[in-house]
Design a protein that fits this description.
The radius of gyration is 16 Å and the shape is globular. The protein has one domain (5-186): Orthogonal Bundle (Hypothetical protein af1432), CATH 1.10.3210. Helices cover 69% and strands 0% of the residues. The longest helix is centred in the middle third of the chain and has 23 residues, at 77-99. With 189 residues, it is an all-alpha fold. Bound molecules: fe (ii) ion. Fe (ii) ion is lined by residues 30, 34, 59-60, 134. Fe (ii) ion (FE2) binds next to helix 2.
Length: 189
């Protein structure tokens, strides 16, 4: 299904309400860029634009609550990561029902994608595309300025190359990854 311009505008407004309270200087530009990458992936690889682009807008809306918890010193990073996805899925359901233009199966699939977008065990084609769009956006230093420090960024990139890059499966995703990685590696050099 196509995502109409009218619905996308309303969806974007809802997503931005949450994202603007999320990780500073990151959640808004990262998400809008992930939406762009998703459109580029769909153009070459196919896929349901309405479900996939909506999932990208909503995938990180769980972060504001996580940030609050962080202030309460709940700092186990894995738990935080997991929680942002569960919380995001809960918020996504509320937003999708409020927007009103999504069928039950569409809502179910989008919630699934938001909840599992950070899982490294990828279980479906839609999940694969969401994983790739999110992770392309994470290293797209020309579009989104990294918020990590010069000391931490190489650690992030090493981890990314070891655990995330090998999980790219679509031809288009792999091609984009190979274009972005060298630029990310040069960013602080
Ligand atoms: Fe993300």
């Amino acid at each position: 299904m196509k995502l109409t311009k009218e619905l996308e505008e309303r969806l974007k407004k809802e997503a931005l309400k949450h994202l603007s309270k999320g990780r500073k200087d990151w959640d808004v530009p990262h998400t809008l860029n992930a939406v762009n990458w998703m459109r580029k992936l769909i153009e070459k690889e196919g896929g349901d634009e309405k479900v996939l682009v909506t999932a990208m807008y909503l995938h990180d809306i769980g972060y504001p609550v996580v940030e609050d918890l962080n202030k309460d010193r709940l700092k186990r990073i894995k738990e935080l990561k997991r929680f942002h996805a569960v919380e995001g899925a809960r918020k996504a359901e509320v937003i999708l029902k409020k927007l009103g233009d999504y069928s039950k199966p569409e809502i179910k699939e989008i919630i699934y994608l938001v909840k599992h977008h950070d899982d490294l065990e990828i279980k479906s084609r839609n999940h694969q595309l969401v994983f790739e769009a999110d992770n392309l956006s994470k290293i797209d230093v020309e579009a989104v300025t990294p918020t990590l420090s010069e000391e931490v960024y190489p650690l992030f990139l090493n981890h990314y190359k070891e655990f995330r890059a090998p999980l790219f499966k679509t031809e288009t995703g792999k091609r984009f990854l190979n274009e972005l990685l060298p630029k990310a590696e040069k960013y602080f050099n």
